[in-house]
Specification:
Length: about 500
């Protein structure tokens, strides 16, 4: 438009000032104006064409740029940025299309696995070390996964492989073994092999589901079972796993409804000094006989409470009740109380325990907190801080189930435990295999060297009792001395023991 207006004006000025009008004296001013307009038209047409061409190129460039950005965004949205593998969303889409196209008489498989041990890598080498390990694992496994399969990162330490078309389910079993083996042998960034492991769950289509979500959920249920079975385990989905989930749902609903009632109470199991078999105190063990779902074992409802965020509330209530009961016992009786790993992630825990002690009047020196090694997976700094706060006011700390986890000697020393409770799996095998005997004796010797008290869990027979006492174990707990009983029976046991001692 600007060209259209300016061109005749410029032409007219130039023509006048350069004497062009004089040169073409025959021409009148009006001819010049017409020529100027014609020229302007030509210039404008050319200008417009050039302009239009440029605009179209710009638009094309912009369209291409946007298309590429969109493709990139699409790819980012479908891939895990760390490993470059398809993410969960893309996996679900592809699995669904695999399941639609599954030919009759053929099978497809979903293999999901979680890598164990990465948290320890993070602790030792920082987040960056953990990321490198994940990238190396993903790269290593792409060599065992063939091109027609789908290999995806589902999030965190979880991965999935889809086998789209199999003749027999043996192929899935074979690949699951290869994956578990490869991760068990993996060494990365100069680490020795064996620090990582994978727990693998497998579900098979069409029998176990023909929609992506169901099949994945079932493979994940199988993986959870594998995790409970042990490192490097492989589990195939079985129908009762769904029943297990249903039962957990019922337990959760009942727990929410009954948590502030009176159906969950602490019972007390005696702790005995092995030199003279005196009762020195009791371990509080939670018992729940629910009016709606019946009796539920504590390890089950404690883990449900952890998962659904009720553990603080439940733990506080149980501790308050246990401290109230223990405050009525003689002053030399201790109360051992279990803290779940999740509770040790709460920075206000020590304060809350102290306020319960203050309210109930139980002296802190009579409380022994029991913690398992799994509490130190993850944020060990916070767990250490809580332990130090509690120790600072005189509460004692015991390491529970010793021998079942991965606590190192240096961790034990640095965390300043007062007591080690040797797990009952070692005590059960005493007298049956020499390894357990050697381990138990070594632990007792080690603990003595570090100035720690030792307690043997699960003492059931007189012969176990005898071997433990001979090995120098200081305390014991188990059915031989008594099961967990309600508060009133514990009080009666104390009275009977005192009367016996006096006699
Ligand atoms: P734990 O802390 O290792 O408790 C000892 C478990 O061993 C108890 O199981 C006890 O009944 C059992 N036990 C004791 N003596 C023997 C024996 O001679 N033989 C056999 N076979 N077993 C014996 P229980 O009461 O079923 O508790 C299981 C777990 O649940 C506990 O293991 C503890 O980790 C957890 N738990 C129980 N009460 C609480 C609680 O109030 N809070 C938290 N956080 N956890 C709790
Ligand atoms: Ca315990
Ligand atoms: Ca224990």
């Amino acid at each position: 438009m600007i060209v259209l207006v300016l061109a005749p004006v410029v032409f007219f000025i130039l023509a006048t000032t350069t004497g062009l009008l004089n040169h073409f004296s025959v021409l009148s001013h009006s001819h010049v104006i017409i020529d100027a307009l014609l020229l302007a038209f030509v210039v404008a047409a050319v200008g417009t064409a050039v302009y239009a061409y440029r605009r179209i190129s710009d638009i094309n460039r912009e369209v291409e740029r946007r298309r590429q950005a969109q493709a990139q965004a699409h790819s980012f949205a479908r891939h895990d940025p760390l490993t470059g593998l398809p993410n969960r969303g893309f996996y679900t889409e592809r699995l669904q299309s695999v399941l639609y196209r599954l030919p009759p008489g053929r099978f497809a498989a979903v293999i999901v696995f979680e890598i164990l041990g990465l948290r320890l890598v993070n602790d030792a080498r920082g987040q960056y070390g953990g990321d490198i390990a994940l990238i190396e694992i993903a790269e290593g496994l792409t060599h065992v996964v063939s091109s027609d399969m789908l290999f995806a990162r589902m999030g965190g330490d979880n991965f999935a492989i889809v086998i789209p078309d199999m003749e027999s389910i043996d192929e899935a079993a074979r690949l699951a073994r290869i994956v578990a083996g490869a991760i068990g042998r993996a060494s990365f960034a100069g680490d020795t092999a064996g620090s990582l492991a994978a727990c693998v769950g497998v579900a098979i289509a069409p029998d176990e589901g023909l929609d992506a979500d169901t099949l994945t959920r079932r493979a994940e249920l199988a993986m959870e079972r594998a995790m409970r079975t042990g490192r490097s385990s492989i589990c195939f989905y079985a129908k009762e796993m769904d029943a297990h989930i249903e039962r957990r749902g019922e337990i959760e609903r009942a727990l929410r409804a009954e948590i502030s009632g009176t159906s969950i109470v602490p019972h007390y199991q005696p702790l005995v000094a092995l030199d003279g078999d005196r009762i020195i105190g009791f371990e509080a063990l939670a018992r729940w006989n629910s009016p709606t779902v019946g009796p539920v074992p504590p390890d089950v409802f404690i883990s449900v409470a952890e998962e659904c965020g009720l553990i603080q509330d439940l733990g506080d209530r149980l501790l308050r009740q246990a401290c109230r009961d223990a405050a009525d016992w003689p002053d030399d009786m201790i109360l051992a109380f279990n803290l779940s790993p999740r509770q040790l992630k709460d920075p206000a825990l020590a304060l809350r325990i102290l306020s319960v002690l203050r309210d109930t009047g139980l002296p802190p020196r009579r409380l022994k907190i029991e913690i398992t090694e799994s509490a130190f997976v993850g944020d060990i700094t916070l767990a250490r801080k809580i332990i130090e706060e509690l120790r600072g006011v005189g509460v004692h700390i015991a390491l529970d189930d010793f021998g079942t986890g991965y606590a190192t000697l240096s961790q034990l020393i640095s965390l300043h435990f007062d007591k080690i409770k040797i797990d009952r799996s070692f005590i059960r095998r005493l007298g049956q295999d020499t390894d357990s005997e050697v381990i138990v004796k070594a632990v007792i010797g080690l603990a003595r060297g570090l100035g720690l008290v030792t307690l043997a869990e699960g003492v059931e027979s007189a012969s176990q009792h005898g071997s433990l006492r001979d090995a120098g174990c200081m305390q014991g707990q188990g059915y031989l001395f008594g099961k967990a009983v309600p508060a009133s029976e514990a009080a009666a046991m104390i009275t009977a023991t005192k009367e016996h001692a006096a006699a």
